[in-house]
Amino acid sequence: MLLYEYEGKKIFSQAGIPVPNFVLIRSPGEIRGAGEKIGYPVVLKAQVLRGGRGKAGLIQTAADASEAKSKVEAIFQSEKSEGPIEKVLIEQKIEGIQEIYLGVTIDRLAKRPILVVCGEGGIDIEEVSAKSPEKIFSFHVRSLEGLRLYEAVELAKKMGIRGKMISAIGDVLVRLYRVFESYDAELAEINPLMITSDNRLYALDSKMIINDDGLYRHPDIDERYRSLNPLEKEAKTMGLTYVDLQPGNVAVISSGAGYTMMVLDLIRSFGGEPANFMDSIVDSRERMQKAVEFTIKRAKEDPQIRSILMLKTMSYTPLDQMMGAIKDAMKGQQSPVPMVSCLRATGNAIRNMTMVEAEGQLKELGIRQYTSLRDAVKAAVDLAKEP
Known about the structure:
Blueprint: H1 5-14, E1 22-25, H2 31-38, E2 42-46, E3 59-62, H3 65-77, E4 79-80, E5 83-84, E6 88-92, E7 98-107, E8 112-118, H4 125-131, E9 136-140, H5 149-158, H6 165-182, E10 185-195, E11 201-203, E12 207-210, H7 230-237, E13 241-244, E14 250-253, H8 257-269, E15 276-279, H9 285-301, E16 307-314, H10 319-329, E17 339-345, H11 355-364, E18 367-369, H12 373-385
Parallel strand pairs: 14-16, 16-17, 17-18
Antiparallel strand pairs: 1-6, 2-3, 2-6, 4-5, 7-8, 7-10, 8-9, 10-11, 10-12, 13-15
């Protein structure tokens, strides 16, 4: 999950990384108090989850209260692809003599964290890498040992930093790595880190991407499903992995990401269009019930969905539990569209119920059961094509 700039700066500040004084406002009327608290001149930054804010006019400077008022009003009235601007960061304007880039990410080939630094910050690091790769320096961190100060200091020296700033920037690097590690981050970046004429440092911007699977360890991070659309957020709160693929005519309930992706391709090969990616947990009766309930609800709300395809292969999870989940989900309601299934169970999965018994119950529920995956997918697509 990508964090807003203000969230990253809060984390940086708590970790001892210096940031400019800032106030977050949610309406133009708050600018007066924020400006007085920070002191002019100030920088006004729209809080959006994308780059290119400067080119889009979403970062402005203001020398006084009057200018700040007019510019912040313009920012709030701006539109972005995700909707209206809801938050603006007001921070003190910092003048400096040098901007540098500091970042930590994962080198997936080396299977280690990697620090990337550059003596030229405030610009696209990919652009520097393409045009002047000799200006970029990197260091692979030994995960069990962490980043040592002397290693960070060596990186600072390689960037051409001299004097007292060497140890100061080394300290910021160590703290940045600790943030990266403690927040389960995929990326922690300061671009730029400003060096002022009186030898002070300020992280003027922050970029952090947190691994979604680690979010439960960080209750201080709000809006954890911000990158999802409303349907996906609703499913996530139910413990379901759901990706909306509309427009589509075949809703899918499956298990396992790889298996589900194969099914989506198969639907398209028969001339259909998947309405969603739904990976329900095969060993959870509760989640299976929620998956069926959610999908039927979607079919009632979306007239483009013309059939529901349900796929499960079980070798250990009891078949009777999965059938119980499906029956409970459909208790007191009918699907507005035909339902097709390909449920297959072997081994321990059929210790309490046979496939013959399950097929009988599916028939009673009005669900068309197939033993062949291809036959089930084709049937769901054919039903979705019917007028």
